[in-house]
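Quick one, T. Sequence first:
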Amino acid sequence: MLLSALDIFNMKKVLSLLFCIISPFLFAQQLKEKYATSLTNKLAYFEALPVWEELATDYLSHQKGKIEYIRNAANTAFKCEQYLKAFYWDSILVAKQWASVQDYEQLFDLANINQKQYQLSNIVDMALKQFPKEPQLILWKNKLPLLSIMDTTKSDFEVKLLRPNSNAEEFAAVPYKKGILFVTTQFKHGIYNPNYSRTNQNFTEIAYIENLKEVEKQLRYKNKWKEIDFISEHDGPVAFSKDFKKVFVTRNQAQTATNDDLKLSKLELVIFNKKAGKWEQDLSFTFNKPDYSIGHAAIDTNKNLIFASDMPGGFGGADLYQCNWLGDHWSAPVNLGSSINTAKDELFPYVSAKGYLYFASNGWPGLGGLDIFRSDRLEDEPEHLGLPINSNGDDFALNINEETGKGYLSSNRNQQKDQLYELNRIVLGVDLEVKLQACSGRNLPGIPLVLKDKTNSTDKKVQTNSNGIYQAALQKGHQYVLVYEGNANSFADSIVFQAKTPGHFQKTIKIRNKEQVNCLWVQTESGELIKGAMVNFYHAKFFIKRVLTDSTGKIIFSNKEKLDSVYGNLINYDDAHLSLIKPSKTTCLDTLFYKLVFKQKQAEEFINLKNIYYSLDKSFLRPESKIELDKLVKYLKEHPDLKVELSSHTDSRESAAYNIALSKRRSNSCVKYIIKQGVSAKQIIAKGYGESQLVNRCADGVKDCTEEEHQQNRRTELRLLGE
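Structure tokens:
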């Protein structure tokens, strides 16, 4: 872990700050507590631990003192990496039902670190029984099945020690030029203050190995990275912009904050720009403060700065923040939120060329200590990278080239000593790129998906990025299902993918609308659109509704009513029928078009209304008129659900009032005849319009109309009626 972050992130072991001879009077309980508290405040955990343990033992044996002695013994043991002792004291708190939520969370971590994962399930159940609504405990409960997979499933990577013969603590390697830079305690910092008193080791500095063929050789003074003038205390780690024209250095601040009598030098982030081959300090980053730490920089693919900090307002511990470059200054830091940060520590961010954010965390459930996670910053939770990248120790500071599968990570998995590890993907990975598209072909951003690993029986909520694409690095040999779950307006869909061979694969999921717009054209065989046709809609042979076509001859409808068939009626035309397409995810159309075509009846069935005659100025039917009305009677009896209007019209001769009365009498005589033949009176009504609906120019006052023109206005008409 980063030695310069000891006071801030409480992540690494600390040796004693000073050696004190314990006077006999200090063995009184009150003085012991005061002494242990003083050592703890000075971060002298190794010195404080035996005193807290003695106080805790006395409390358990004689009930003298405070329960807090046991908690202090557990926490102090944890901080100086006496993990078995920490597990012992935390277990007592749980057994006595004195444990807090934080005690339980520490015990979860200790169970992993001490390889006691078999106890986790019982401990989590005990925690939830005491704190049933605590979100972090619920998260651990939900993650238990995944933890068992983490502990047994290996990824397609192998790790090996990069410098097995080094006697220094080393971490945070980054590629630079043809070699690597990394943090080390190998070198001595001057004459007057050669050692870091809290660890009895040298202060951290940056080493550079130019030739990777010599990476296992012992470091010498020539291996110090001298391109930047560093301070006299801790320096590192470092991170570069993608073009290597900026370097971001984590180091101790010159200003100090005070914790009791102990002066603490927090971390700061310092930027240097390369100009004319030399590094010059950049003062644009103005957020370093003596009251909190900022460090561990990374630059994402959009040139935004991501870093770790314990500044006020976070979720707890150290969180990851982002600043955007606005052309001449950095924007105020913004917390990356609960999809990344927890109540514990998130550290060592790194953003790959593909845009994935890698970071170390001890807040998300893992194998123990710090584990490395990956996120595309769209998902609800980050992805645990599994074995062997992670272990029961602290694993952090990953740097990887996703194309080659090569990189570096740091870990104290070997006797709690920070060491560099080389990372190699055993085989080239399987990279799946899925476009989520509308039927129009437009990519859809921000759409939730579920990635199911059928091999591991795990699900992960993901979503498409701003370009409507979801990218996933998959494990070779695993079977996956990517699911779009659909909604009220669109069908669910999925793709199945077997990661058999390495490579980059592209797939597309098209979202099909459940509610397509339907357009029905009602027309004759010649293509003429029909006004006044009766169109009946059905679902599963049940009548749903009927519509009378207007002058456009078109009907627009949705399929919310699950309509599946159409029957049409039109006087003097055969009934028409049409089956509708059932909406499905195989139909990628926004609008469905249909044609309901009517075929005209043959002469013997055609009702010729021109053949309905009346004697001059009379309203009773002539015998030849009844032939046509009998055809109408037959049609209405065959269609008892239809209703028609029979209307009579006159020419403009005689007065308007007289013509209205005459036309009514004539239409009534027709209707009476039809009803007398057994047609229900509900099916037909009579209307007389007189001269009010002339079809030509022959209105009152027009003198030159022919008898033929007047005959055109003297007519009988039929039309279907709606509801």
